[in-house]
Each structure stands twice: as structure tokens, then as C-alpha cells.
Amino acid sequence: MALTQVASADRPSLCVAPSASVTSAGGYTVVRLEGEHDIASLFVLADALSVAIALGDADLVVDLSNVQFMGSAPMRVLIRCRNLLRAQARDLTLRSPAPCVQRMLNLCGLSDFVARGPVELVR
Questions:
Q1: Tell me, what's the pLDDT at 51?
Q2: Cα 4 versus chain centre, distance
Q3: Strands 59-70, 19-25: parallel, antiparallel or unpaired by DSSP?
Q4: Rounded Cα–Cα distance for residues 89 and 40 (Å)
Q5: What is the pTM of this model?
Q6: How far apart are CA 14 and CA 25, in angstroms?
Q7: Are 28 and 60 in contact (CB under 8 A)?
Q8: I need a surface site. Which of 62, 80, 93, 95 has the fewest CB within 10 A?
Q9: Which of 61, 69, 70, 76 is nearest to 114 (CA)?
Q10: Alpha carbons 30 and 24: distance in angstroms, whole number
Q11: Which helix (H) or strand (E) holds 98?
């Protein structure tokens, strides 16, 4: 299993710096996000998704279990990524969102992105 550290943004000490890593596991490409993701850190998410898409033809799973905040701008990036993947007969699934992230997904009408069931794949 290969691990690629994609990016980490410089942020004030009161914020949890956003970061992302990409791994391949079980026929999926997994993007693990951590910290607070908003418009100022879009490059972290966009870079990670670009790396994940370029790794091959596997479906993507985005693990949100360590995300403390996600604004609407990253949601738009996820929508665009899912549309791109669907055009390639691939899919994007979100796993384990924290309650605050789940609320934002619900507000943006994206709750169908979240997979139900076991999360062994992303642990």
C-alpha cells in the first residue's frame, strides 16, 4: 500500500491545518482528509483528488472521519470530482463524516454521497 502526502496548508494556530493523503487499498483509491477545509485550502483537496484520479481507474473513497470543518467550496470540488469520475464509469463515495460535516452535506443536498454500512475499507 503506497501512501502519498499531498499537501498541508499553513494556518493560524487556532485552526486545525487541512491535510490529505492518498492510498490504494482493496481495489479502491482512498483519500483521507484531516483538519478544517474551506475556500482558503481548496488546493489541498483538489491536489489530493487529482493524484487519486491519476492513479488509475479505481473508484474513490473519501474518508472524512478526521475533518473538523468543511465549508461549501470543498463541497463544490467534490461534486465536480464525482461528475468527472462518473463520465469515466467510476464513482466517488464519502465515508465517516463528523456530525458538523454531515450537516453541511445535508444542507448542500449531498447526503447521497455518503456510503452506509461498514467502513473497514478506510480504516
A1: 95
A2: 14
A3: unpaired
A4: 31
A5: 0.82
A6: 33
A7: yes
A8: 80
A9: 61
A10: 6
A11: none
Distance CA 50, CA 95 (A): 19
* pLDDT tens track for 30-69: 999 999 999 999 999 999 999 999 998 899 999 999 999 9
Q: How far apart are CA 121 and CA 39, in angstroms?
A: 28
Amino acid at position 85, single letter: L
Confidence check: pLDDT of 24 > 60: yes
Q: What is the pLDDT of residue 95?
A: 94
Output the pLDDT for position 73. 94
Residue-wise pLDDT for 64-121, tens only, equals: 999 999 999 999 999 999 999 999 999 999 999 999 999 999 998 888 889 865 445 5
Measuring CA to CA, how many Å separate 5 from each of 14, 58, 79, 95, 117?
23, 19, 23, 19, 27
Cβ atoms 55, 23 nearer than 8 A: no
- Grid coordinates given for 25: 487499498
Of 92, 117, 121, 123, whose CA–CA distance to 26 is shortest?
121
